[in-house]
Specification:
Blueprint lengths: L28 E6 L10 E3 L2 H8 L5 E2 L6 E4 L1 H10 L5 E5 L13 E5 L9 E7 L9 E10 L6 E10 L5 E11 L8 E2 H5 L9 E4 L11 E5 L11 H8 L9 E5 L2 E2 L14 E2 L14 E5 L11 H12 L8 E5 L2 E4 L7 E4 L2 H14 L18 E2 L5 H9 L3 E6 L3 E4 L14 H17 L10 H20 L8 H4 E4 L7 H5 L6 E4 L29
Parallel strand pairs: 1-5, 1-14, 10-11, 14-17, 17-18, 18-22
Antiparallel strand pairs: 2-5, 3-4, 4-15, 6-7, 7-12, 8-9, 8-13, 9-10, 15-16, 19-20, 19-21, 22-23, 24-25
Helix pairs in contact: 1-2, 2-6, 8-9
Amino acid sequence: MPLTYRRPGVYLEESLLINPSTVSGAFTVACFVGAAARGQINEPVLCESWSDYVNQFGGFDPFVTTGSTTKALSYLPFAVYSFFQNGGRFAWIIRAVPSAQADAGEAASITVNGSDTGATSLKSFDLVARSVGTWGDTLQYNLKTQGQSSDGNTDIFALQVMIKNAEGQYEVVETFTGLTVSGDVGGTRKVDSVINDAATGSQFIFVTNVNVEQLQPEEATSVPFTGGVDPKLPDASALTASAEMAGKLEGPININVCGYLTDAAAADTPDAASKWIGTTVAPTVFGDRQDIFIINDSAAPRPAGTSSSAYKTSIQTALGFGLGDSYSASYTPWLLVPHPSHIGQTIAIPPGGAVIGMMARIDSTVGVFRAPAGVIAGLSNAVGVQTRFTDTELGDLNANNINVVRSLVGNGICVMGGRTRKTYGTDKYINARRTLIYIKEALRRSTQFAVFENNDQRLWSALRMSAERILRPLWSAGGLKGASSQQAYYIRCDETLNNPSVIASGEVHMEVGVALQYPAEFVIIRITQYDQGTFANEIIPAA
């Protein structure tokens, strides 16, 4: 802005609000925790598509566990796939393994030797798989010399990474050119700096133990990695411990801890439930976080031959009644979906991944204030449910705050329950709890400007304005009840809340009250006779 206006003409100036209230980007992100064939351990990894997940963690096939030929079937990939199929955009993935180092497995590796026999070691550098597991033994590398430095002492080379595909053939997945061991040659890049770069480096390997005395790595073709050891499968406590890593993520999170079958062959057998390893995660594992909503896949698969009544009883026993809170929800039964990698087959999977994807879709098309249930809450990749409950059984499950997935004629497979695990209060409904999470997060983000501002009427007015810009659009969209904004919410930030002692302590207080929406969970239509005061006479013809 110029200090003075001296030249006649048009001056354009820009003035931005210091207290913006718009909460940009996606409101809630998904997080999935479970066992995987490969990938980083106990660290959240962002996946923006299904192909991202495959590159980082592998596909659907069961994987062999350490010390056994038994194949475990993890439902983590099915949950992530269902999430993207039902409208999810991006998700954080946490690969769970046992916490004990002895059970954590080992990464495959290979040493790249140099040709300088006068050096103290032949090793030029090591290549190591990005994560532990026998998947690393399917890696190979090619190294080709592209040129030399002017003094002839340093080779410039290209490195290719290959991996065995589903057909058993090796294919090149990454190529890095213009590399040197030292990085001292003009126009080249140091091999470990390039390969290990978190943003642009390799998704499959990293470089360690670089020996700058061996500047001429030997050319090689199709050299395999070796020594990969799968980690042992995480038990329920290890799954919970890995879920705690979600606490590192900022902003509201919908989290699903995916269980697995210790024996993939037991999926449709009478002892399927005994092979199921799952866990019920409580919000207390995240400390004082109040923006994490948990979708628990608590129900074990229905064993073959088990009646719907017996299965319903086992679910109620496992979950209990009145033992949860408004930051978690449970769903049943398992879904029948087309097997993504076996054409013509279906597989039963837990509903959590599809439910979180459906929630993300409703968040973006309607809003978090809409209950994620009803005909709008269809699960697009489901072709059936593993169990059809009777009306009485459905009532028992709903009374225990267990949300049931059902087949609705003309609407497909839909979630027909919108309750949290809390059994009383407004926030026993999912949309009420998630609306409160949204309001708290929006207020937190939009009032950051107030920190260290002068604590007087001007600041109070700015805070009220910020809250107004959040609550009025929410009410206009139907997220708060009331015929007027005065009935929907109130905002207080004045001298009654901020007296001299409060101001002197460095605090500013604002009070916000909202009228949350209740979903129409039960639609009751009463039909009675109505004849408008007339009588119906029956005329009997004469014989």
